[in-house]
Fold this protein.
Amino acid sequence: MASPSTDDLWFRRFRPSAEAAERLVCFPHAGGSASFYVPVASALSPGVDVVAVQYPGRQDRRHEPGPSSVAALAEQVAQAMRTWDDRPVTFFGHSMGAVVAFEVARRAGRTPVRIFASGRRAPSRTRAESVHTRDDDGVIAELRALSGTDAQVFQDEDLLRMVLPAIRSDYRAVETYRAEPGAAVDCPITVLTGDADPRTSLEEARAWSEHTTADSEVRVFPGGHFFLSERPADVLAVLNEHFTAAPARHA
């Protein structure tokens, strides 16, 4: 039975847990990296094997071009995890990561137990967005407005300019993303959203129900687009609730 490793091209395991009964795969937001989920790995280990996806174009993959599209990225990730068969898998994706997780689930060899779609409107709900066409200062202004980027990045001009190409690629991929008509998965979807998120309305969050043949629910938290950074304990409580039910699933 195959299992992801720490030196794999696509996946990072910050708290490896060979004895964990279930696995959580985490998908970063636009401009984000696998390390964004270190706190999740620390909180859920050793009971859950937390694996974070590392998109190309950042950190140790910074010399690679960023993703060309959500579909292409999802296909690559799905292929990389196609041999995973050793334990049940749950997906968690924030913002861009939510639709990447959704598209990976549609392509993966086995259906995840559940998808947690955080901070992102339903795949069928589109908006006219063009951050990827702005100049560097315009992209930086967007990052500052959403408050999801480590403040230290803004203090290091060289670092900021180095990561901007990957960030722009991410924005291009997610802003040009259009789900196929009728696209759906066969697993439940839990939608997490901030009550003051300028990028996702409550109606757009509820519309995720159109993209699953199973159940769906919406959990609303105080906060903006990065409510999960503002309310980490509350978000972790939702994940713990899910994994606490794992023994019943195994039975």
